[in-house]
Amino acid sequence: MNLNSDEHILHHSTDVLVVENDKLIQKQIEIYLKEYDIDFKLLQSSPEAIKLLKQATFNLILLDIDATEYNAFDLTKKLRTVLEIDIPVEATTYSQIH
């Protein structure tokens, strides 16, 4: 997918689920997704995500790699095995360079 083009592949009412507890990172992801006119739902915790994913579907999930309740790897495993959800998952991380 060419993110520099005006087109985007995702076209459903809510395309991306973002699970991130850091407010600064949330804001950066929000700015980026809005720039490309991508609909998204922002949650702060893995348990919230699990609850929502039992009721709704998304085209992509962005997970904080260091989430406190479940890290991205553990949550992805739970989504695949317990909830049988086969949505693409991307682990996100933030590194500050001084």
What is the gist of this entry?
This protein has 98 residues and is α/β, with parallel strands linked by helices. 32% of the residues lie in helices and 17% in strands.
Describe what you observe in this structure.
The chain is α/β, with parallel strands linked by helices. 32% of the residues lie in helices and 17% in strands. The chain is built from 3 helices and 4 strands, in the order βαβαβαβ. The chain has helices spanning 23-35, 46-53, 72-81; strands spanning 16-19, 40-43, 60-64, 89-92. The chain has a 4-stranded parallel beta sheet, with helices on both faces. Strand 1 (16-19), helix 1 and strand 2 (40-43) form a beta-alpha-beta unit. It starts with 15 loop residues before the first strand and ends in a 6-residue tail after the last strand.
Which sheet architecture does the biggest sheet show? Answer: 4 strands, parallel
**Rg, Å, rounded:** 13 Å
Uncertain parts: 1-12
Shape assignment: globular
Mean pLDDT across all amino acids: 82
The fraction of residues assigned to DSSP E strands is 15-25%
User: How do the strands line up in the largest sheet?
Assistant: 2-1-3-4
Series of secondary-structure elements, N-terminal to C-terminal:
EHEHEHE
Give the helix/strand class.
alpha/beta
Helix content: 25-40%
Would you report the number of β strands? 4
Distance between the termini: 32 Å
Number of helices: 3
